[in-house]
Amino acid sequence: MSRPAGLQPPRAVLFDWDNTLVNTWPTIVECYRDTFTALGLPPWTAAEVQDRAHGSLRELFPTLFGPRAAEAEKVFYETFLRIHLERLEPLDGAADLLAHCHARGCYVAIVSNKVGHNLRAEVAHLGWGQWIAKAVGARDAPRDKPAPDPIYLALDGTGIAPDESVWMVGDTQADLKSAHAAGCLPVLVGGAEQLTAALLEHPPKLRARNCHELVALL
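Structure tokens predicted for phosphoglycolate phosphatase (218 residues):
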């Protein structure tokens, strides 16, 4: 998709993290496998994880595990903390995309449903703090995506209003719904084949297959 006529370049670009800028599916799949196994439940396949594991754990786990949600979260993070940094893999073109946004004078931030301190550890591990002004994760704001609260927090203190000059870029329904709720421009990257009727309730204004296409849109 090309940028629609009349749509100005963004003042700020807010990125989701997992599977928008970095490939973390192998880590997420292993964490879910260990969690289900520890609780005596049949583990999801990798495809089921990719289809169902959206949203923050504090919202998703009570619906999956009921009164055992805290136990499940403990197991999940034991696996996660053991492997997440060594498995962290930038998506092709992600670093160039961030550098391009920064060079254009855009305010760049991360808005993720990964717990904040783990998110910031991954940003630091990759050395991407040179381009990213703020990284907002799960539990940093009163509510996580798809609520707009993390977007408001990411923009707090910048003087930038959450309007169409702010692009919220992500790969899931939660990212698009959060953008719509905040009044930002929703941008879908990747995952186009997984669009569903539910996703189309919160349609993207722009779509790109990967980080390289996002550079072209900018």
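The two ends are 12 Å apart (CA to CA).
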